[in-house]
Structures are given as structure tokens and as C-alpha cells.
Amino acid sequence: MTVVRHGTAPDVPREQRAGGWAVVAEQECRDLWLGGRGPMLLFAFSVLISAMTYLAATNQVLNFLERKEAANLVLQVAVAVGGLLTLIVSADGVSGERERGTLESLLLTPVARRDIALGKLAAALTMWAACYVALLPYLWVLGRGLSIAGTAMLLGLLVGTLLACCLASLGLLISAASNTNRVSLAGSLFLLLALFVPSQLPMGPSPGWFFDVVLVRANPVAASLKYLSDVLVSGHAWSSGLSYLASAAIVAFAATGAVLIAADRLIRLQAWERGA
Amino acid sequence: MSLRARAAGATAVLAVSLACAGPAIARADSAGPTLEFDRTRVDLVVGDKFHLITTVTNDGSAPTPPFIAHLNVASLTSDVYVDPEDWSPSRSKLVASLAPGASTTVRWDLQAVNSGWFDVYVVLLPDGSTTLGSGPLSVSPPVFAVIGGRQTANPGGALPVVIGVPAAIGIGLLRVRMRRRRRRRYAPDGSSGRPRE
């Protein structure tokens, strides 16, 4: 108990650390998927994507003229909402354990805190994996007539996974810095909204430096969605707009690195301890 | 107004406009090249793809210059806006010079994207070195297109997926909940029966 309060890593034998993250990930996945929260979120996701797909398919203009736009619309919403669900799951990772009072027993297990963080990240990413698998039939229906179904699926896998890694790491960082789930979820949702808003702004043919670089390219969500649209609708080569994915890759790498490197400091009984 | 009466009216409008255009427009039955479609009417529903074939015949005694055949779609009702580019991605095609008595065919691929009554017609624009930018134009008789609306409950085959995926996930969700409820019922302390390690 004392060890935990002072935020130092428990003395874990090296042989017990090996695969510790997999044990944590398995337990987290059980909680997520057998506890009912994951299936519930996935069900809500599928209902939303079903509604979007049906509307896109019944809209005569979209249906007969711009099927690419319809597939792009559904893919963008799926990637954004899948990222949101991953963020929600990871934002519950540490603060949820604190709130439920289960973090103490978790910290007493012979698993390194880095492995705890890695396991929680992996479990959060299964949310995106499930969303992606659920999305595939919709992309097939919308893209099969134009032979863009395969492209849309690969794009979704690449961009969605990158964005999910980025948001899961950010969510876990916010969760580790929050004492309650309410703060963690509110902060995470605010962050996602702030990142999502620029993608909805009208972008002219020659956007200014501030708009293009600061609001879009430096923004993992807006830049990733722009890349999706460029490749799927505008027909750009996959390699031509890769710079748009740089921000998501950098944030994912930096945030995951921060979570893993500072796991001993981040995963503690209290996020902020007075006098600590 | 009946469909036939409206169609007759539209043809009359076309005839009047042809007459008012004067010598710049040649009637299809004049000595220049004549145009004919492979049919005079199509009945379709929105979204249907179809094709029309125009036969261009040189009825004159001299070879014709090259032409540009241009397809157009006009709505016969004022409440429907038509963008012909939506109907056909390739509306201008080159027609080579024709010897006297010779003929050639031009194929047009179209998709009905609006519901309503339409005339589809082709205009031949002279494209020779000496006739470029001059008349007379040759106009085909119109093909009367009656396009019905379509209210389908299964657009593009999306309905099985739209219903099936949430249903399958919902069944999985119900099974998870039932399993949890069963575990809780049989757990001695009323908890989930699976204490957190």
C-alpha cells in the first residue's frame, strides 16, 4: 500500500513482467466485452452507421451521381465515431479504476505499470477493431458498384487505426491525470470536439497558411479525414497526401511513448497528490 | 393534360423553335445529313441505365464535312431541373466526313437521374476546316423519355446490411446481458461472480 501511495513501481520479477501487458489486456477485454459496455457501444455505432448508410443510399442524388461521396461520408463518420468510442474506453482506463476503487488491487498485482498502461491501450484499441469489422459490410454495399469498396476498406483500416491509436493514447493520458471519470470523459470529449470542428469548416481552393497548416495539417482528426476524402473522392494517389497523416502518427507516437515512459508517475492511486 | 397531349405540345414547341431559327438550322428532312434514333420513346425509372443509337446519314450528293454530334436532354416540365452532364458523361462525339449515301452510328450511354418527361435529342455541328463555327445545324427528332420515380425499400441492396448488422450485434449484446444476469443470480453474494483480480 505504501509503495503504491508514493507512486513507485512495485518490485516485480522480470520473469513475471514478460507478457504482463497481455494479461492486463485480456482482463480489460473481458471487462469491456463480457461486461456489456463494448457490445452496447458497438450496437450504438452500428445503428448510427446503418442510419447514415440508409440515408446515403436512399438519397437519389447521392445514390446515382456521387456514390463515392456517400461512401466517403459513411467512412468519415465511422472513423470519427470509432475514434470517439476508443477515446471513451481509454478515458475510463485509469480514472475509472480510481473511481471504482479497483486501482489499488490492480497496482498490487505483480505487473509493471508500463504493462498496465500497454494492456489498457490494447484493450481500448479492440473497440476500434470491432467498429472496423462492423463497418466492412456497409463499405461493401456502398462501394461495390464503383469498385471503391476495397479502397475504402483499406483506407479505413489505415487511417482509422492510426487515429484510434492517437486518441486512445491521449485518452489514457487524460484519464491518468484525472481523479474522476467525469473529469476524464469531459476532458476527452472536449479535446475530440476541438479537434473535429476544423474538419467541418469550409475549405476554399487556396486556404491560407493558418487554416491549412495549423487547423488542418497539425490537427490529427481534421488532417486524417481530409486524407480520406482526398484519396477516396478526389482520386489522389495514396502517397501524395501522406503528410496529412503525419500529425496523427506523431501524436500517436508521442502520446503512447509518454504513457509508457511515464507510466510509473501516471498510474497512481491519486492523479494529483498534495505535497507530492 | 394527358401525357400524349403534353408530348405533342413539346414537339410543337421544338418545331416552332426550329422554324424561328431560320436558315441556321436545317430540318432533319432537308438535303443535309439526317439523324435518326433507334427508338422514339423510352419508359424507365430513376437510376436506370440505357443507351441510344443515332444513325447519321448523308442524303446529299456531296461528301459532308466532319461534324460534332452533341447530345442534349431537356425537361418538358418546368419543375424539373436537368443537368445533361449528369445523364451522360460524354455528350459530344466526333462524326467523320460521310460520302454521299453513307451513314454511321453514334452510341450514347445515359442514366436517368431525374423523374419526369424529357426530350433527348442530338445536334450535328459542322466541324470542318471551312465549315467550323458555321451552319447549318442538323437536329434529330427527339426521343421522348418518360422517367418514373422509384421509392424502394431496399436501395442498392443496402437494407439487409442496414438491418442485419445492428440486429446481429444486438443479439450478441442480449446474450452478454443474459449471461451476466445468470451469473449474478447464481453468485453467492449477488455480485457478478467474477471478482476483479
Q: Can you give a write-up of this model?
A:
The complex is a heterodimer of chains A (276) and B (197). Chain A has 276 residues and is mainly α. In chain A, 74% of the residues lie in helices and 0% in strands. In chain A, helix 10 runs antiparallel to helix 13 (220-232). The longest helix of chain A is centred in the middle third of the chain and has 31 residues, at 113-143. Chain A is globular, with a radius of gyration of 20 Å. Chain A starts with a helix and ends in a 10-residue tail after the last helix. The model of chain A is unreliable at 1-9 (pLDDT under 50). With 197 residues, chain B is an alpha+beta fold. Chain B has 3 helices and 10 strands, in the order αβββββαβββββα. In chain B, the strands form 2 sheets. In chain B, strands 1, 3, 5, 6, 8, 9 and 10 form a 7-stranded mixed beta sheet that branches. In chain B, strands 2-4-7 form a 3-stranded antiparallel beta sheet, with no helix packed on it. The longest helix of chain B is centred in the C-terminal third of the chain and has 28 residues, at 159-186. Chain B is rod-shaped, with a radius of gyration of 30 Å. The N and C termini of chain B lie far apart (80 Å). Chains A and B meet through helix 3, helix 4, helix 5 and helix 9 of A and helix 3 of B.
